[in-house]
Structure formats: C-alpha cells, structure tokens
C-alpha cells in the first residue's frame, strides 16, 4: 500500500509531540491571567476566538469547559470523565516504567539500547539518551503508513534507521518519538512481557486508573464517553478538516498510545510526584538531569526536558513538571506544580478537540493551565 504523508509539515512535526511550556501565556498576553476566572476566560477564548470545538481544564476539584462535545449537536463539552487520547503524555508513563526497572537494578541508564534491541547493533545510543531525547534518532511518525494497522515496533524502527542520523548521540537535543518507541522495546526485552502489560501492572492497576487503557490492534474508536476530535486525517489529508475521533491508537505505542481521562491523568501526576510510583531520588533525577530546550520550536526560554518530563517556571513562581502532546484532533497538556508564592500545590489537565498549532492558540491553552496552577483555589 502506498505510504500517505501529510501535506502540512507543521502537522507532521507536531503529531505526538510535546506541548509548549505553560508560561507562554504570560508572554502572549503581557501579564498572567490568574485564578479560576482566568481559567474559564482562556477556555472561552479558545472556542470563541480560535474556533476550537471544545476545551476542558480539570484541577482535581474543579472542571471548566467551553464549547461542544460534537459539532452540530449542541451537546455540552464532556467533563473530567471523558476519554481522550493523551498523545505524548504517554511518554511520562513509559519513562516512569523505565525508571522503575532502573531502581530495581534490571536496567542501567548508561547501558546501550543495542543490548536489548538488535536492530541498533553498533549504535552507541544509551537508555539515558533515549529518555532525554538526545539520541539523534530520526522520528518515525512522519514516515509511517497511516492507512495501515498492525505494524510492529521493529517495522517502525526500520523506517527511522533508514534515514540519516540527525546528530551524533549525546551532542544535541532533538524531539523524536523513535526514542520512546525504542524504550518500549527495551521494556519488552527486560521484563519478558509487552510494555503495555508492564505499565498496566505497575502503574495503571496500582493507581486504579480504570479509565486509562491501551487501544487494541486495529481499534480506532474511543471507548466510553468522549468528545469528538477534528483535524486533518493523516490517512486522507486531501479531505481537509474532518472528524478524526477514530485513529489507529495502537500504532502510537509507547510514545503516544494511551487513552485516559483528565481525572486519571491528574491521579498519575500526583502519584508520580508524591512518591507512590518511584523512590524520591528517581523522580529527582528525572527532573534534574535535564537539557535546556528553550526557544527550540514552541518551547519558550527557560524550558527544560528531563526523563519524559518537561519543566517550566510558572507565572506566579515555582516549577511545573509534566508533559504534553498533540494529535491531528487535539492538544493535551498536563502536569504538577508546587512551590509558588502562595504555597499552593496543584495538578491540572487541559485539552482541546482540535490541535492547537497557532502560537496565540497555544498560548491560551497553556494560559488556562498556568491560571489553574497559580490559583490558590485550584
């Protein structure tokens, strides 16, 4: 079957990619938009000014919504129980699973990936470099066949390895979904079970994340309540903007395949930073062994990338750590923050049902998160 590639380069680059840093909102508006009213204001602007069909923010105690769950239906936007493809937020789950193996002595950060993945024979790329996006491996996502299902990780990795290395391992930083594709393969080899099963057993079940799941091979629809998503379908880009709620989620794998809810995602962030999933030293390493990614792509100055986590200063002070992600039909940003002037600790998930690719739109998405995390009532 002929490989179909998106005609829009921005969409290719952003698919399964990270969401830009929270403080971008302050830069765009000139001042932080704090408090609960600020959260709702940003969501309303996303719908009314940017044309997003729907938008949601959930802090754990409060749900904010704007727009509709399905165009033309008049149906209100779904709440915190709605299922959503969390795209590259999945990387934080995968990184946590890898770090669990490290803490158990079953894997070392500085050992080569080739030890577990024969396709990388002769490559000096290490586990640490995969986690930190410093391997230089080309991204497979823009090369994959979106019209086919059932492709294997080995087939996807072969697409990447057929391309020229972007840079020598450890000499630069470059976001690539291939890094987390390989980490999933490493989990398989070390544990003797599929990375999906391992993450279910060590993260999803212990935290009772009952609404979070890995799509099965060939499964396109979302289970349970959910909003519809709209964008350019990479399997049929000539059709323009359509309903893209159905996507081959299984193919996104360890880099971006999870489906979750805002409620479950917030539970994960709280557990990770609360010490329930990893020893404190491991979480410290994930957030302190980092690369400055400020002014790279959509990352503003001061942004850092660690082990499957991005860090940014909030407009009210203190640090936010989490991740984000994009798919053709939506953008999701989530994470945990503590230490700002009010002493408030918060967790938030914000998402839209069309991908936020424009700078101003992205700023409002992140502005809602910043406002929620900086609110003493959040």
UniProtKB/TrEMBL annotation:
Gene3D superfamilies, A to Z: DD-peptidase/beta-lactamase superfamily
**Domain named Beta-lactamase-related: which ranges?**
52-369
Q: What is the recorded name of this protein?
A: Serine hydrolase domain-containing protein
Q: Which domain of life is it from?
A: Bacteria
Q: Which Pfam families match?
A: Beta-lactamase (PF00144)
Q: Which UniProt keywords apply?
A: Hydrolase, Signal
Signal sequence interval, chain numbering: 1-26
Q: Which SUPFAM superfamilies does the annotation name?
A: beta-lactamase/transpeptidase-like (SSF56601)
Q: Give, as one word, the top-level EC class.
A: hydrolase
Its Enzyme Commission number?
3.1.1.103
Q: Which GO terms describe its molecular function?
A: hydrolase activity
């Amino acid at each position: 079957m002929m490989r179909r590639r998106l005609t829009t380069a921005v969409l290719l680059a952003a698919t399964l990619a990270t969401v830009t840093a929270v403080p971008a909102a302050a830069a765009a508006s000139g001042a932080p938009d704090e408090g609960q009213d600020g959260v709702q204001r940003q969501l309303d602007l996303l719908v009314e000014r940017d044309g997003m069909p729907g938008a949601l923010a959930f802090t754990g105690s409060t749900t904010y919504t704007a727009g509709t769950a399905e165009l033309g239906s008049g149906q209100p936007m779904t709440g915190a129980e709605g299922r959503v493809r969390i795209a590259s937020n999945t990387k934080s789950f995968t990184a946590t699973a890898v770090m669990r193996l490290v803490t158990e002595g079953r894997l070392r950060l500085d050992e080569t990936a080739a030890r577990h993945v024969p396709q990388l024979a002769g490559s000096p790329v290490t586990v640490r470099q995969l986690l930190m996006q410093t391997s230089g491996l080309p991204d497979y996502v823009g090369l994959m066949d979106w019209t086919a299902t059932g492709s294997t990780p080995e087939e996807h990795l072969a697409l990447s390895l057929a391309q020229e290395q972007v840079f020598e391992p450890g000499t630069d930083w470059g976001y690539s979904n291939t890094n987390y594709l390989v980490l999933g393969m490493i989990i398989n080899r070390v544990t003797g079970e599929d990375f999906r099963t391992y993450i279910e057993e060590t993260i999803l079940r212990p935290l009772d994340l009952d609404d979070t799941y890995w799509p099965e091979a060939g499964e396109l629809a979302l289970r349970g309540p959910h909003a519809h998503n709209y964008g350019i379908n990479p399997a049929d880009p000539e059709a323009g903007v359509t309903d893209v709620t159905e996507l081959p989620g299984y193919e996104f794998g360890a880099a971006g395949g999870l489906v979750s809810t805002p409620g479950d995602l917030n539970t994960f962030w709280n557990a990770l930073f609360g010490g329930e999933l990893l020893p404190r030293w491991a979480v410290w390493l994930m957030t302190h062994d980092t690369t400055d990614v400020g002014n790279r792509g959509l990352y503003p100055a001061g942004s850092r990338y660690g082990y499957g986590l991005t860090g940014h200063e909030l407009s009210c002070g203190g640090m936010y750590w989490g991740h984000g992600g994009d798919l053709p039909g939506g953008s999701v940003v989530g994470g945990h923050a503590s230490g700002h002037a009010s002493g408030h600790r918060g967790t938030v998930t914000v998402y839209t049902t069309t991908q936020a690719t424009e700078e101003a739109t992205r700023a409002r998405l992140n502005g809602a998160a910043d406002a929620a995390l900086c609110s003493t009532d959040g």
